[in-house]
Amino acid sequence: xxxVEQHPSTLSVQEGDSAVIKCTYSDSASNYFxxxxxxxxxRPQLIIDIRSNVGEKKDQRIAVTLNKTAKHFSLHITETQPxxxxxxxxxxxxxxxxxxxxxxxGTILTVHP
Amino acid sequence: GxxxxxxxxxxxxxxxxxxxxxxxxxxxHTALYWYRQSLGQGLEFLIYFQGNxxxxxxGLPSDRFSAERTGGSVSTLTIQRTQQxxxxxxxxxxxxxxxxxxxxxxxxxxxxxx
Lengths: 113, 114
Known about the structure:
- The structure holds two protein chains of two kinds.
- Chain A has no helices and eleven strands.
- By secondary structure, chain A is mainly β.
- In chain A, strands 2, 4, 5, 9, 10 and 11 form a six-stranded mixed β-sheet that branches.
- Chain A is globular.
- Helix content of chain B is 0%, strand content 48%.
- Chain B is an all-beta fold.
- Chain A binds chain B through residues 32, 34, 36, 42-46, 49, 51, 89, 91, 93-94, 98-106, and chain B through 31, 33, 35, 42-45, 48, 50, 56, 58-59, 91, 98-108.
């Protein structure tokens, strides 16, 4: 089945800096890659996603890039704000994991004011 | 509109008891998923319902776990003879169609087995 590795496990940045979180996946047939933000005690919230037919997608301060050849994808947050502090999860689905999400282990992002 | 809802929000049970967790998906969403979130294991897939198709049960950790989806809407996850290692947050998600795209999560049920 699919395996997703996520790095780093923790990330600390100053307000206004950029943050980058990276994930690799194992199943070359996977075709959908969402990112979720989870604040303490809250549900995971879908913030952006990308399908395998595009290489990059942007939504205001967040962007996701996908490299199918290398089987990795990344989340980029620019101009970070304290309210961006949360745990971020990447996930993959498709191929042998059709319909179900396989998650990375999560990145704790802390944005210092 | 209303999001995914789950009940109860918290459940404390004694080891060996059975528990039922409920999920109400977003209206019109044909796909429903259960995941489990625990400190040591992250977010792990349990089971996936798509329309009237047979569910994908490949993530259920043991035969003590089962789930039903009635009328293509509400789902119940049942854990029989609970064990301490079942303690976790059980999350339900739903999506509009096939393929697992754009899954929206409920608030979860925190299960504690004493």
